[in-house]
Task: structure prediction
Amino acid sequence: MSCVRLGVILATLLLGWVLLWTTQGKGVVQDDPERNIAIPDVLLMPLQMQVAYNDEKIYFRYRWPAERAYVYHDMLRYEQGRWVRHGGSPVGAHPDGTYEDRVTMLVDDGKVPEFGRYGGYITVGANARFFTDQATPAEVQADPHLGQTLRQSDVRKYLPATRMDVSDWRGVVDEQTLQQQREAGYFLDLWHWRAGRSNAVGVSDDQLIAEFRLSDKGRGPYTTNWDAANSRPMWVFDREKAGIDALRWDTVQAQSPDFDGIYFLSEDLAKPFDPDHQWQEGDVIPRILHRQPEGSRAAIGVEGGPARWSNGYWDVTLVRALDTGFPLDDKMFREQGVYTLGMAVHRDATGSRWHYVSHPYTLGLGREADIVAQRFSGETPQWSDTWKDLTLFYPGQVNWPLLVSKAHAGAPDIAEGKPVRPRHSEKQLAIYGVEMEFNQEIISQWRKTLVVGLLLMLGVWFGLHRLMKNVRLNEGGGA
Amino acid sequence: MNGVHAMLVHFPLAFWALATLMILAGVFLSGRFAELSRAGLLPVLVFSLLGAVAGLVSGWLVWPAEANLYSPLARNHILMAIWSLAIYSSITLLIWRFGALMFQGTQRWALVVLALAGGLLFAITGTLGGHLAGSPTHFSQLLAAFGWTVYETFYVPDAVLVALLLLAIIAAGVGLTAKTGDKG
Result:
């Protein structure tokens, strides 16, 4: 047998294997804004938590790394005589960095049992906002409940039983059933701390998930500062109170806010827009006006005043009454109670679905749980250095209808009530989430790889077979 | 079907492991044990292929077809299983056609390379099966250390596919153009 020819044939197999191994996973995953796809550079991030409570209040402390503090949210920049918006929900990171950091927490008291097993996945319905197959504004506006009753134009988080068909966001159950569900506690409390739209006035937004992501009753901590009729801000800084007429664009772009200075516009710093003021190129007025919230929506405060970012970390402590008195909006905490939490963080100027989420974790008040709240007496908790370390992951485009469908091998396990945490790690879920964003392309490429790999083996076998026939002939055997 | 599959795949895995050891023994050892290994290899390989077909069919039926295609782990399991079957089929055909001749001269190195490649492939296949059954092993961490996280679908770009096809053509062409009496 020719040693050289044999060597070449075997080398093709080995070289092919090296090529396969070193280039696997490449060539498909890439940002595609047209399809609402933007893959974060990092798929996992840490979050540390501590929880404490006394007779009246409960405190949640969150700490997470963030390269910068993004507190400027939705800004109006004066450009060539016009007020131009730099904000709004982007695909992935906002190119101007004008999108706020956030930490959010879903809370349940056992009335949404599947939340305890599958966490936030149950809130991600069909055709959600910023999914590749998102429902169009026209479709949502035409819907009797989401469009005409709630006046919405996109599909956001909702709970499965608020729909007649879990795979159809349109089929909202009737109003009476929704009301009965709420009274039965079938909703998730949503603590929603916003670095740009709530923190500056020392509060967290307070919302809930039912048939939509709804706000608690009452007045929210911000309103839109835009005079649409005149295409200009409605409110501007009052120099006598704020010491400035406007922020500057280069300051906003630097993303290093002075937490002791003015980086936001609030009612007590504002005055009505002055059309006679000589606005300068690069002047910036926030498109968000902060105000003190009222009612149920004002239930969550930031302990110790606005939270701060320093040395690469946000450190946020939220505080709320154990019982807010709003049982249709909030989940109440009680001694000896066990609750389910699901946390999420937005950082790096991202919004909507570009967040990092946690598995569901239990919280115990005087009970064993994943996170045990520390009871204390006095006015404020004395935090220790003992943190609950969590790993958050980028969830990609995976929704609840998919998870309970035949396309998910674990659907029977879900039907049997087996929880997700023992089955899938955060890393695994992050990778699956990204792959789902390119599912058809990856399946196609996988098929081609499978077939071409077989062809390579066929080529090697054919080459060896021909060589061996010659060997047999050389040795005097038959053909 | 999951239990049936778990039972059936023991046969090809055992036969392939045995066949790989018999090839290595047949190539590198001498004496009675080596002779037995060479003589008994073909039946072991044939049984392994029968078991592999049963394993593949039963495996495909564990989940709905859609779930098989949507799961990155299942995709990888299927790909590695089919490639394992292909490489041991190659070995089987070579042993069937050329028998003891494959253990002689330089061509025995072809058997060694194919057997080791097959061994690696079926080890990966089994590891992925363990993951799918909820029993991951540390072997996947070894694969990760070498650059492949098993939760990521194994696929390559089109340019690499073209290169692989060229390699396949080269391999076939090198054999096709060999002449009788060619000593290299």
Notes: The helical segments of chain B are 2-8, 10-28, 32-60, 65-70, 72-98, 108-132, 139-145, 158-176.
